[in-house]
Design a protein that fits this description.
six-stranded parallel sheet; alpha/beta; two-stranded antiparallel sheet
């Protein structure tokens, strides 16, 4: 039985967003009186859930440990609002992504997004860059389950109406590979993303793709 849907991670898989995330993280840290973080530190944050992301961001920015928990909701809300004000700033799709999505759609394959990025930002980005090429986008809110929880794929499965054995999950981080394992979906490791391939291989992804177009050989 072949795959009927391609579910994508967002940051580092569909879109090169790292400079954008770095820009708004440092703007948010400065707003709350803390220092900025490096691009490499920001890259590591991109694999985390919302709660983990802002907790670590505050610690990296020099927030006193006893203030981190209290400030997390405030910096999250500020950061998301700033991001949404100009969410395309410095962001672009990876080469070959748009063409791959179009061809998958032509073949009758459904495309969807599952990301730990805040839902409002994720959906705005997907609508702006990919429009009707995506069947749905499932991002994170403070109330929802984040990757790699075994139930993180449930909203995608329910809305697509496709069984998990017919889903291919494409991602660029160890968290994405764990998500595929935990949700019993097949994994494609995207070698062009934010983490080196060596960090993904221990999770034994079914496929390794070095360019988005290589996914077409799987479907």
């Amino acid at each position: 039985m072949g795959f009927r849907a391609c579910v994508w991670d967002l940051d580092g898989t569909l879109l090169y967003t790292l400079p954008t995330i770095h820009h708004y993280c440092n703007q948010s840290l400065r707003h709350f009186g803390f220092h900025g973080i490096t691009l490499d530190e920001c890259r590591d944050l991109c694999r985390l859930s919302i709660a983990e992301f802002y907790h670590k961001l505050l610690k990296l920015g020099g927030c006193p440990p006893d203030r981190v928990a209290a400030l997390q909701p405030a910096i999250r809300d500020y950061d998301c609002a700033a991001y949404l004000s100009d969410f395309t700033y410095l962001t672009q799709p990876y080469a070959g992504v748009c063409e791959t999505l179009a061809e998958l759609n032509r073949r009758g394959i459904k495309n969807a997004v599952l990301t730990n990025k805040p839902n409002a930002v994720a959906c705005a980005l997907i609508d702006r860059f990919f429009g009707d090429a995506m069947e749905l986008c499932v991002g994170q809110t403070p109330e929802t389950i984040s990757k790699p929880d075994p139930h993180s794929m449930d909203p995608v499965l329910e809305q697509l109406g496709i069984p998990r054995e017919q889903i291919l999950y494409v991602g660029d981080t160890d968290v994405d590979m764990q998500t595929a394992r935990n949700t019993q979906t097949a994994a494609a490791a995207a070698a062009w993303g934010y983490q080196p391939l060596e960090m993904l291989l221990p999770y034994h992804p079914e496929f390794i793709v070095r360019r988005p177009e290589q996914l077409l050989t799987i479907f």
